Amino acid sequence: MYGALNESTMSNYLNGGGSSKKKQVILLVQCREYTKGREVREKTREFIFIADSRKEAEEWLGTIEYLKTKASVDLFINKFGGNVKL
Question: What is the maximum span of the chain, computed from C-alpha positions, in angstroms?
C-alpha cells in the first residue's frame, strides 16, 4: 500500500494499527512552497507515503528527486530564459 495519508491514519500506522504485520517504510516529504494554478504559495506542506518494501520506497525517492529537479529547472527557465529549450 502506498499513498498520501492524513495525520489520523498515520498515527494509526505508527501505533501498530496497520493491516500488515510486515515492515513498512514511511517517507515524509516536506515542501516550503507550492504552486496552485498560477499562484505560488509560501506555506509548508507535508506528504506522508508508506511503502511496503525498501525497493518500493527507493522507487518513490527516485521519482520524488526527479520531480524536485524538474521543478527547479522549470523555475529557472521560466525566470531567466523563457526561450531556452532543453
Answer: 53
pLDDT tens, per residue, the chain with 86 residues = 344 445 555 555 555 555 556 788 898 888 888 888 888 889 998 988 889 999 999 999 999 999 989 988 888 888 887 665 65
C-alpha torsion angle, residues 11, 16, 17, 20 (rounded to 10):
120
∠ Cα 73 4 24 (to 5°): 105
Q: Using CA atoms, how far apart are residues 52 and 75, in angstroms rounded to an integer?
A: 33
CA–CA gap between residue 38 and residue 35 (Å, rounded):
7
Q: Are 50 and 25 in contact (CB under 8 A)?
A: yes
Contacts of 31 (CB under 8 A, 6+ apart): 44, 45, 47
CA angle, residues 23, 25, 27, in degrees to nearest 5: 160
